[in-house]
Structure formats: C-alpha cells, structure tokens
Amino acid sequence: MWEIIISSLPSLIEAMLKYTIPLALISFAFGMIIAIGVALIKFLNPKINGLLSIFWKLLRLVANFYVWIFRSTPLLVQLFIIFFGLPSIGIKLPPFTAAVIGFSLNTGAYGSETIRSALMSVSKDQWDAAYTLGFSTPQTLWRIIMPQAFRIVLPPLSNEFIGLVKDTSLASTITIAEMFQVSQQIAAQNFQPLLMYVEVAALYAFLCTILSVLQHYLENRSSKFIKGDGN
Amino acid sequence: MWEIIISSLPSLIEAMLKYTIPLALISFAFGMIIAIGVALIKFLNPKINGLLSIFWKLLRLVANFYVWIFRSTPLLVQLFIIFFGLPSIGIKLPPFTAAVIGFSLNTGAYGSETIRSALMSVSKDQWDAAYTLGFSTPQTLWRIIMPQAFRIVLPPLSNEFIGLVKDTSLASTITIAEMFQVSQQIAAQNFQPLLMYVEVAALYAFLCTILSVLQHYLENRSSKFIKGDGN
Amino acid sequence: ACGKSQSETKTPGTLTIGLEGTYAPYAYRKDGKLTGFEVELAKDTAKKMGMKPKFVTTGWDSLIAGLNSNSYDVIFNNMAENSKRKKQFRFSKPYVYSKSVIITKKDSKIKNYKDLKGQEVAAGTGTDNWNNAKKMGSTPVSSPDFQTSMNMINQGRVSAAVNSREAFEYWKKSHKDTDLTYKTIPNNVIKPDAIAPMMNKNSSALNKKMNKALDEERRDGTIKRLSIKYFGTDITNK
Amino acid sequence: MLKIKDIKKSFGKKEVLKGISTIFPEKKTTVIVGPSGSGKTTLLRSLDLLVKPDFGIIEFDDLKINFSEPFTNKTANALRDKTSMVFQNWNLFPNLTILQNITEAPIYVQKVNKTTANKQAHELLTEVGLDEYADAYPSELSGGQQQRISICRALAVKPEYILLDEPTSALDPEMETQVLEMLERLSDQGQSMIMVTHNMQFAKNAADKILFIENGKADFDGTKDEFFSTSSPRVKEFLHGISLN
Amino acid sequence: MLKIKDIKKSFGKKEVLKGISTIFPEKKTTVIVGPSGSGKTTLLRSLDLLVKPDFGIIEFDDLKINFSEPFTNKTANALRDKTSMVFQNWNLFPNLTILQNITEAPIYVQKVNKTTANKQAHELLTEVGLDEYADAYPSELSGGQQQRISICRALAVKPEYILLDEPTSALDPEMETQVLEMLERLSDQGQSMIMVTHNMQFAKNAADKILFIENGKADFDGTKDEFFSTSSPRVKEFLHGISLN
Ligand SMILES: Nc1ncnc2c1ncn2[C@@H]1O[C@H](COP(=O)(O)OP(=O)(O)OP(=O)(O)O)[C@@H](O)[C@H]1O
Ligand SMILES: Nc1ncnc2c1ncn2[C@@H]1O[C@H](COP(=O)(O)OP(=O)(O)OP(=O)(O)O)[C@@H](O)[C@H]1O
Ligand SMILES: [Mg+2]
Ligand SMILES: [Mg+2]
C-alpha cells in the first residue's frame, strides 16, 4: 500500500504544482477583481443623472444577471459551456484559459455578494465622518471603508478560496490533467481507486490546511486594530 | 434543437423529482441537525468538571476534527469513500443512504461553522439579560439566542442549501441516476452534450431561483422584529 | 468547424489525440507517464503520418464535446463503431475488435446473457457497455471506472458488469485470487465491437492519412505486437 | 435582607474587588457611586451571579453562598431568583414583542399560567403608560421607553431586589427624566433597589444609603446625608468632579 | 460668517425643518438646543451638507448655495471645507492609528506634506494631553479620549467652524468633564463653534448665542443671557424639563 502511495506521489504533486495551485491562484486573483467591481456596481449609488444614470442602471442589471446565472448553475456546466460551447460562436479558448475564465467568473459571482455585504456592514457613520473631512467617495471607499470591510470579508473569502482549490478538480472535464484526474489515471493502472482517492484527498486537505493557517494569520494581522472590546 | 430539448425534459424532470430534490431536502435536514449539534459543542462552555469535562473536551476534539476533515477534502471523495470504501470495513450502504450520509455530513460541517458564528454574533448581553431573569442555559439558547441567530444565519444557510442542490449532481458517481447523470445518458445517445448541459443548467437555475425567492420571503418574515433602525 | 482546409489539424504538424487515460490497458498512467495500448498505437500512428503526437486527457462526459469543439483531432478511446456514432462522426479503420463479456462472481446465478434480464449491471454512463447492458434487458448502473465496477460486483451492489474481455483479463493479472469470472456473449447477440479512431465528419483528408498509417501498422505487425503486449492475445481481427 | 462579606474578584491578574462587605437594606434604595473602573458594575453583577466572585459570602435571609466552598446549582438559582438586573443598554429581547419580553420569564421560568402572566404584564405596562405598545417590538420604541419596559421585565419576576447599572446613562435628558421618575416612584413604593449611578440628583432625591467604591474597596458606606456632608477628601473630590453635570 | 436662510428639509412626507434662518457669528460659540426630534441634528448636518436641504440658502462670505437651484460639486466642496463635524459617537476610523486619524484628511484631501501634517497632529495631541497615544488604535482609548481625538481630527483640517452634535452625551460624567473643558478652552481661543447639546451648564459657561429649535422652527434666537431670562413659556418649560440633570 505505502509503495503505491509513494510511487504515485510525484505525479500527483507535479499535477498540483502545474495545474491545481496556479489555476486556483490566478482564478482567485481575477475573481476578486471581478467581485470588487461587481460589488461596487451594486453597492454605490452615484449621484448622476441623464444618460449616465441609465447606463448605471443597465450596468447594475447586467451585474445582477451575471451574479444570478453563475450562482444558480453548476460550475461544471459553466466550464463545459465556456470550453466546449463558445467555439460554436467562434471563440476558441485554450483549456487553461477557459478554466481560468470559468473559475474567475464563478468566484467573482460568489465573492461579489460577500464583498457587497461587508461594505454594507461598515457603519454609515464612517462615511459621514469621512465626508465631513472632505474625502471624496472613492477616497472614502479606498482609505476608510475597504480596510474595514477587508477584516469582515476575510473569513468568508478565505473559505471561498479553499472551496476554489477543491473545485479545480472539475478542470479535468475540460482536458486539464490536474491532480484529481491524474489520480484517476493512476488508479486505472493499479486498480486502487479508493486508495488513490484517499491520497488525493489528503493532498487537498494538506493544501487547504495550509491555507487555513494562512487565513488565521491574516485575520490576526488584519484585526490588530480591534484590540479592546471594539465599540 | 427544440425537439431534443423537449423530448429529454420528462426524463430530466423525473430524475429531479425522484433524486435531486429529495436528496437535497433530506440531506439538508439531517445536515442541519448535525450542524446545530456540532455548533453547540464548539460554542457552549458548560460549567462541569471531572470526567464530564474531559468528555466534553474529547467531544470538542472530535467535532473539530470532523469539521476540518469534511471542509478540507472534496465532496466527491467523501461520497466515494462512504459508498465504495466503507464496505471494506463491513458497512455496506445503499446508494441513496450513502449519498444522504455524505451530503449530510458535508453540509453539517460547513453549516456548523455558519451557525456557530451566528451564535457568537448574538450579544453577550442577551445571555446576561436572560440569566438575570432566571432562564437556564438551554432555555436561553432556545428562546432567546437561537431566534436571533436564525435571522443572521438564514442568508448563508440558504446559500449553502442552494449549493447543496447543485452538489447533488455528484451523486451520479455513486450510481444514483439524478438529473445530471440522466442528462449525460441522454447526451451519450444524441451526441449533443452541450445542449444537454445547457438544458440541465436551466433546470438547476430554475430550482435555485425558486429557492432564492423562498429565501427572501423567509428573510423578510424573520426580520419582522427589526422594524426601526434596530439598536 | 470552420477550419481552413479539411485536412488541417488543430495544430499543424501535430496530431492531437483525445482520450480519458483512465482505462487500463488501453490508456492509463504509470510512473507519471501516460501509457497503454492506445497511447502507444496513437504515437506510432502519428509518427507514420509524419506528425508529432500530443495527448489530451479528459473525462468521458466531455470526450465527444471536445471533438465537436476541435479540442483534439481524433479520439483513441476504445471507441466502438456504431450506426449512431457513424452518423455524426467519421471512423478510421478498426485497430482491434473488442469482445464484450459479462463479468460476475464465480458462483453467480447468471450463467449466460439471458439471465441478465432485470439484473443491475455496472457500466460507464453512456458507454457501449451501458448500451449493451440495456440491449440484454438489464438495468445499467453507472460506474466511474473499471475497478469500481469490480468492487460493485464484489460488494454485491450489482450482479454483473458488462465490459471488454481484454480489460478484465488485464485486471485479472493483478488480481490472481479473484472471485470474479466472465461469461461470453454470443456474437449474434452482441457483435464484437470494431474499435477505431474517431474524428469529425469533415476530417476526410486526415482520415485518409490515418487509414494509410493504420494499414501500414497492420502490415508491419505493430498493432499485433502491441495487442499481445497489452492484452496477451491478438485481438486485431474479428 | 441581602448581605455581602469580603467579596473579592480578579480578572486575570487584576484584582477588581478587594474585599467588600456591606448590607443592602430591605425596602430601601442603595446607590453605588465611584469613579470609572472602580468595580461598581462588577460588584452589582456579583449580586446576581453574572460574575462569580473568587472569595466571600453572599447571604440572603437563610440562603448563603460562600464562594470559597462549592455550592449547588440549586442554591445559586435560589439566590438569583431574589434579584433581577436592569441594564444600562436595557437589553430587551429584540425577537420578542414588548408583552412577550415581560411574560417570557414568568411563563417559562416561574411557570405562571399564561393568562395570569399576560394580565400582570398589562398592569405593569399600564402603570408605566406603555400598554399601547404591548404588541410592538423593542426596536419600535425610544430608548427611554425601552428602559421603562426593561424595568417592567425585571419587576415581572417579582424579585426582592432590583439591581440597576447606570439605567439612564444611555438616555438623552428628557428620556432620562421619564425613567428616573419611574424609579423614584418605585423607591417610594418600597421596592428594594440597588443602583449604580452617576446621577447625584437622583441620589439626593431617592437614595437611602450610599456606597462609594474606589479602586475595588468601599471607601464610604452610610446614609445619603452622611455622604453629602462627609469630610472625606476623596468623596469631596469625586463630588466636585461630576458637579459640572 | 456663516448664514442660513429659510432652510427646509423633509424626510419623506415629514417636514423636519420648516424654514430656519439665522446667522452663526464668527469666533463665537452658538449652542442649538431643543426637544428630541425637533430637527437639531438635521440642521447641523445641513451645514456640512451631510443632509441636503430641499430649499433655502447657505452663505459663507462670498460662497453661496441656493438649494432650489443646481449648484456645482466644486461649490459644495468649497462650502464643506469651511466646516467640520464632531459626532456624538466620535466615529474615529478604527482601522487607522490615532495619528493617522488626524493626518489622513490633511495629507490626502488637503495635500499637506506628510511631515508637516504629522507635526501639526502631534501638536494637537500634545495640547489635549494624548500624544502618548499617537500610535494606538481608537479601540484602545476610552470614550472621552476618543472624543477628544475626534475634535483634534476635526481641527486638523483647519475648518472655519466646528460643528458638534451632542459631543458628550455618550460619555460618562468624568469623561464628559474632560471633553467639555477642552471645548471651553477652544471657545475661549475664539474658535467658531456650533454645538447641539443638552448640557445647560456648558451653554451657561461657553455659549455666546443660543438657538432654540422646536418642531423644525427656530423658536428662540438670541444671546445666552436673553435665553436664560426669557419669558417664553416654551423655553421655560424646556429648561425645567432637563433641570433634573
Ligand atoms: N470581564 C472582564 N474581564 C476583564 N476585566 C474586566 C472585566 N469586567 C471588568 N473588568 C475590569 O474591571 C475593572 C472594573 O470594572 P467595572 O466595570 O466593574 O467598573 P465600573 O466601576 O463599573 O466602571 P464604570 O463606571 O466605567 O462602569 C475595570 O478595570 C475593568 O476593565
Ligand atoms: N434620515 C432620516 N430619514 C427619515 N427621518 C429622519 C432622518 N433623520 C431624521 N429624521 C427624523 O427627523 C426628525 C428630526 O430628527 P433630528 O435627528 O434632526 O432631531 P434632533 O433634534 O437631533 O433630536 P435628538 O435630540 O433626539 O437628537 C425626527 O423625527 C427624525 O425621526
Ligand atoms: Mg460600570
Ligand atoms: Mg440629534
């Protein structure tokens, strides 16, 4: 048994380093950019009128639709459509790109809701305090609201990232030989699918645990300004 | 195209009604029971000593381990091990039972963290207020804290339920012919996997949207006691 | 499906081959490398066509979708010719003839294909085995891989599995003391499957080149050699 | 009669109560004053066992808890039944209506039957002029109204002593007036009360006894008149410090 | 000099300000008083454009906003620069240190260079005796300390007028004393201030002018001495209502 585990480890780790981790990291980075953008579109209520305000309403409609569609359909299907479906309308993406796009859009949809609710949870008073000092809306967002929202958003976003790491296993359906697929291929030879599954589960657990530790470290750091009771 | 969609619809809806929905509902119900239990084990700090307190510490250790393991390994692997792995230690479960156990344990692990953090977010003052009136800990939990936590916990738990509905597609790996597998079977016949995937995605979206509407209804009802600004 | 020239492959000069890579002895991973009968055969075929082989592995569910979207040029994945598939896709010349068998426990009540009626039988979702199991009046139950099918029989979750004899023979090599055996299915019930490379309908030029290469491999004994190497017998003919 | 003897309490290494002994007379109002952080809240919470002292004795008639010995849950509950706390931020239960806030404990803790409990609650509400809000939720009421409700809630369990921790400090002046008037009325009716407050006007009007705590110790313990005429320099300084108010 | 003319504001159907005109004298302290809900906060917030009136004019020297006409963002910002608000709950930025709380606006809004901003912040902190907390976070300070910091923060942008909305009502008496002393000092130094407060003692000590608002209207507008000796029955009633305090 140990022999099987050890002999399969190098291929699994290679797949992890080559696909699982880069996929998760890159997709999460892009996902967060999307999430912040969408969260702001839904959160802000800029004082504009005329055409601009119609445009903003449209933007918000698109954002709502995007969040709805990506949260209410299975990720597997999303990947499938992006990779196998888009070519039929002339958009052909390499597998890795397609995977990054799919995972980013999915993470972006979930993340945007998390970020929006964190923004909303920062007291309205903080906005008043900033405005009275002359801060503009973007300045207030960036210097006052976002740092406070960050602390709130960290635990749920970390969970989403951990979820994403595990979800990368779905990339196998769009021809990416990530860790999970490699484990299946090895199992085809040694006929120990269960053992291979446990092994790959352990590797995921390992990754996720490292991430959790990192999350706690970040949480502690980011909450350094909440020393007393807070108030 | 429409012909294919319409002709496949009855089998898909049958699979949805027979497996997808019952699986999600039953697993969520059990999952919540587990989640509440585990959340309480981690949340409560009963004033006991001697053997009982050692037992409680042990219980908490087990709870922590359970949450950790189920949150850091892919659900697919969990199902696989429960269904195909447990027989090797003499526990043979029918597919539906195995699926319910797998999904319940998974939902329970995630849900317990959600519930625990909701319990923690109810002000310590509410406990004091109840204690001073003579409520016991279980009474306070049940009559005062839980109703307040419920309101907080509703949005994230609804999201977890929606996630579960989509995750039931993984039951196909343990031989359950749920909606997603049926779509694959049909696709293998008509060679229109993309079309079938889009169709099944639409069905999932339909289900999830109904659930979201329900969620909003529940949220509105449960927050009826927050009429003014709250305070 | 809007390529410039019909014979053009996904990448010029490269033959991109789609397969699952999770089905021994056809294709699987050993010591970190993809290998197996179909892997070696596809490599040799590409060489004979003057092209570089490139393998793309993907799940069974998306194997056909990948062909539709030109993610690869050809599938070498134990793909059996049948009329439905032929309508949509183009098959090159068969390289082996795979015999479906009924795998059961030695003491099973299932003595021949007729006993299969009403029984639950393990097979991959939407595979030929799945269709064959259905054809014989049994209820197919989805199984993700070969070993799992065997486990399902052993655990009594299904009464049998329909799969290729070669796969079973290969598996038996590493499970000598197994309790499982197989029963053949008469050719008039289920014909031996002609296994051939499968490609898009519009790849006729590619098909021509591939057929030439396959003919050559037949002539110089490559296919036979690989068959014996991986299956232990020669299954290159009907 | 409620008595404490040599109550000590530390949080971590910090000794917050350094041995306080006193008597809280029945049907009288005892006011606890002292600088911020001196331990007033901790002492008050000890009386209701929301804080568990490390050392000392609490006695109520023939009930007695000695914190250096083990005591049963039953004794603790019996003692706790004698007192009921009113909090600075009132802490009504936001998920219950005003009526339910008041009847919850009588019904579920004291097993009073529902009709009786409701009737008594309505009487209390009528007395404080808030009966029309019986079916409202706390968030619909002003701070002063909520604080009056919370006093009703405390009274509903018929405790011997009502404990109040700065019950008006989170209220604006007009609300404060409402609540203080209600408390003075209660005091006049002979309800035993123990109250932490900075409101010297209230102390002057309603207190029978004053306990001045400084740095975890009872620096003064006597009648109101003694307190306001004491020669203790520390008390004088304290009274001066809050005179601006 | 800051002047307002006929300021009106409704929230939904409720008219909260029903046309208020007055002058806020320079280098003087104007105290706004009135019953709860009368519109004091709304009026004060209007001066800083945290609330946008529906009607009326705000004038500051040659700057002028007429709310029934469109006005540019530039004018609004220019007016807003003249004032700075101190809030009841201080509202320090919890994610920034004390020093950063004070320097953030000078550096990022007024583009003062960092060294200068820090120097000035330390001067302000020293003045209020809190320089040692420069690198602490707000949550590490008491309420009274935080409120003093929030006044420093408002002063740091060098506004013409400091607006204060019940700056001591969330503080306990000793903290309140600290903050009020600081404000009296500022008032003596000739800082223009407009303050909503219930603290009549402070009004007596430091106010130059008093504006009494009732039900969205200015019922009294005059000097402190006029106010405390007025014969207006409503003002007398009001003064009586908060006398207990
Ligand atoms: N749960 C606790 N954990 C640690 N320290 C505490 C706790 N409760 C109170 N303290 C500390 O005990 C000391 C006394 O607190 P207490 O609340 O009793 O003072 P107080 O007299 O009520 O002051 P105030 O007038 O400000 O309410 C303070 O230094 C406080 O920080
Ligand atoms: N944002 C708002 N939306 C709706 N109504 C509001 C809003 N702000 C204030 N009001 C209402 O306007 C009225 C005046 O409120 P305001 O806060 O100005 O009173 P105030 O004089 O400051 O009272 P207090 O002394 O209690 O602070 C109140 O009835 C209040 O409910
Ligand atoms: Mg206190
Ligand atoms: Mg106000």
UniProtKB/TrEMBL annotation, chains A, B:
<dbReference type="InterPro" id="IPR035906">
    <property type="entry name" value="MetI-like_sf"/>
</dbReference>
<feature type="domain" description="ABC transmembrane type-1">
    <location>
        <begin position="17"/>
        <end position="215"/>
    </location>
</feature>
<feature type="transmembrane region" description="Helical">
    <location>
        <begin position="194"/>
        <end position="214"/>
    </location>
</feature>
<keyword id="KW-1003">Cell membrane</keyword>
<keyword id="KW-1133">Transmembrane helix</keyword>
<keyword id="KW-0812">Transmembrane</keyword>
<protein>
    <submittedName>
        <fullName>L-cystine transport system permease tcyB</fullName>
    </submittedName>
</protein>
<feature type="transmembrane region" description="Helical">
    <location>
        <begin position="20"/>
        <end position="44"/>
    </location>
</feature>
<dbReference type="GO" id="GO:0043190">
    <property type="term" value="C:ATP-binding cassette (ABC) transporter complex"/>
</dbReference>
<comment type="similarity">
    <text>Belongs to the binding-protein-dependent transport system permease family.</text>
</comment>
<dbReference type="Pfam" id="PF00528">
    <property type="entry name" value="BPD_transp_1"/>
</dbReference>
<dbReference type="InterPro" id="IPR000515">
    <property type="entry name" value="MetI-like"/>
</dbReference>
<keyword id="KW-0472">Membrane</keyword>
<dbReference type="InterPro" id="IPR010065">
    <property type="entry name" value="AA_ABC_transptr_permease_3TM"/>
</dbReference>
<keyword id="KW-0029">Amino-acid transport</keyword>
<dbReference type="GO" id="GO:0015184">
    <property type="term" value="F:L-cystine transmembrane transporter activity"/>
</dbReference>
<dbReference type="InterPro" id="IPR043429">
    <property type="entry name" value="ArtM/GltK/GlnP/TcyL/YhdX-like"/>
</dbReference>
<keyword id="KW-0813">Transport</keyword>
TrEMBL record, chains D, E:
<feature type="domain" description="ABC transporter">
    <location>
        <begin position="2"/>
        <end position="240"/>
    </location>
</feature>
<dbReference type="InterPro" id="IPR017871">
    <property type="entry name" value="ABC_transporter-like_CS"/>
</dbReference>
<dbReference type="InterPro" id="IPR027417">
    <property type="entry name" value="P-loop_NTPase"/>
</dbReference>
<dbReference type="InterPro" id="IPR030679">
    <property type="entry name" value="ABC_ATPase_HisP-typ"/>
</dbReference>
<keyword id="KW-0067">ATP-binding</keyword>
<dbReference type="InterPro" id="IPR050086">
    <property type="entry name" value="MetN_ABC_transporter-like"/>
</dbReference>
<keyword id="KW-0547">Nucleotide-binding</keyword>
<dbReference type="Pfam" id="PF00005">
    <property type="entry name" value="ABC_tran"/>
</dbReference>
<dbReference type="GO" id="GO:0016887">
    <property type="term" value="F:ATP hydrolysis activity"/>
</dbReference>
<dbReference type="GO" id="GO:0005524">
    <property type="term" value="F:ATP binding"/>
</dbReference>
<keyword id="KW-0813">Transport</keyword>
<dbReference type="GO" id="GO:0015424">
    <property type="term" value="F:ABC-type amino acid transporter activity"/>
</dbReference>
<dbReference type="InterPro" id="IPR003593">
    <property type="entry name" value="AAA+_ATPase"/>
</dbReference>
<protein>
    <submittedName>
        <fullName>Amino-acid ABC transporter ATP-binding protein</fullName>
    </submittedName>
</protein>
<dbReference type="InterPro" id="IPR003439">
    <property type="entry name" value="ABC_transporter-like_ATP-bd"/>
</dbReference>
